[in-house]
Amino acid sequence: MQEMMQALVSKQKEYFYGGHTRGIAFRKRQLQLLKEAVQKRESQIVEALKKDLNKGEFEAYLTEIGFFYSELKDMYKNMDYWASPQKQKAPISHVGSKSYVYKDPYGVALIISPWNYPFQLAMTPLIGAIAAGNTAIVKPSEMTPNTSMVIRDIVTATFPEEYIAVVEGDAEVSKALLDQKLDYIFFTGSKHTGKKVMAKAAERLIPVTLELGGKNPAIVTEDANLKLAAKRIVWGKFLNAGQTCVAPDYVLIHESSRRKFLKLVVQYTKRFFGPEVRGKRSYPRIISEEHVDRLAGLLDKEKILYGGAFDRDSRKVEPTIMMDVQLDDPIMEDEIFGPILPIVSYQYEHEVLDFVRERQNPLALYLFTENKDTEQMIISNLSFGGGCINDTIMHISTPYLPFGGVGESGHGAYHGKDSFDTFTHRKSILKQTTKFDLPIRYNPSQKTLNTLKKMWE
């Protein structure tokens, strides 16, 4: 295994050193080829997502295929400008020189993707890697084998292995890849695995982006539009059966609005998913029986307001609302990553800050309020990857906002220009004139020192 991975990385390094990926016209052509290959296999992608996660066609396009097209379109349109050298100012002490920042690809990039959005989270980082001029190795999740196979077919039919390759397999394959002399690592997945990836990267000082997760709060204040808050939280939470790293993990609702909000949450859950969601043909499955068992273990029958049913054989867990949840309940310990929504009530604004700060920095935070001062208070006093005011999830679907975590929810960001920047080294170059040579740097006298102080102080 090690020898095979080493040979692949060596082959890609040789291709990169040959300068094949440097030209912007070449990169744009590869993105166009990738888009055409995906367009040809749209139906196969939808079918694979159905087999792996039971995603319906609408959800498959909205959250996976359409997302990919949006990212590629923005990258294709803007990458000429993003890739061009940027001229910078020069201080008076550097008279005669010109300063530039060149956009340099790293080399061989490894992209390790997860199972919850198996197409999108493998292919959108690949867009950035290609646009920035790298070669790439994509390691899809073994837990979604059908989607992995389609990704492999798309890539192998479009690109030579020495440029873009797909490597399938389990954790041992990932370990073998991480043991290689890579130039960049882009990982999306759990915090537990992310620590292992970062440790491996540290051995060779390889730069790394980690896209992880966390307990993302949805804060609903007493002045919020409760109807819209309930509607948008239900949609964002139960999308992909809750298996979304930026899904609202729990709701913090002001005590005065609690009863009305609970009624609205149940109302919209019924409207969107129906009373017999386990039998719905398009409702996503939980990824494995073990994950069903884990979710079932978090349920407290005494606190279930709605739902609570599950079926291990079909891997379906009903959208579930839990009320009167306490902060020390098991469901509040770790990220849920499933269709269970705990509701926690609060009385005072300062309690909200304490609730969120008691846990690691979340990947996302959602605030529902009509008060600008409350907005500023939350944004200024809590650390989180990104989020929305009066919405959920939608901040990650625009290519104009960076997406990434902070602290234990990850580091580094991508989407749009940030995808290009993530896979790009900013190389600083100073071009000095040969028409004259100022003697000041060669003369360590008191007069020279006084001149320097006047310039710099």
From TrEMBL:
The active site is at E211, C245. Signal peptide: none annotated. Keywords: NAD, Oxidoreductase. The keyword Cytoplasm does not apply. InterPro entries: Ald_DH/histidinol_DH, Ald_DH_C, Ald_DH_CS_CYS, Ald_DH_CS_GLU, Ald_DH_N, Aldehyde_DH_dom, Aldehyde_DH_NAD(P). One of its GO terms (cellular component) is cytoplasm. Gene3D superfamilies: Aldehyde Dehydrogenase, Chain A, domain 1 (3.40.605.10), Aldehyde Dehydrogenase, Chain A, domain 2 (3.40.309.10). GO terms for biological process: aldehyde metabolic process. The keyword Oxidoreductase applies. Residues 21-429 form the Aldehyde dehydrogenase domain. GO terms for molecular function: aldehyde dehydrogenase (NAD+) activity. It comes from the Bacteria. Belongs to the aldehyde dehydrogenase family. This is Aldehyde dehydrogenase. It comes from Alkalicoccus luteus. The lineage of its organism: Bacteria, Bacillati, Bacillota, Bacilli, Bacillales.
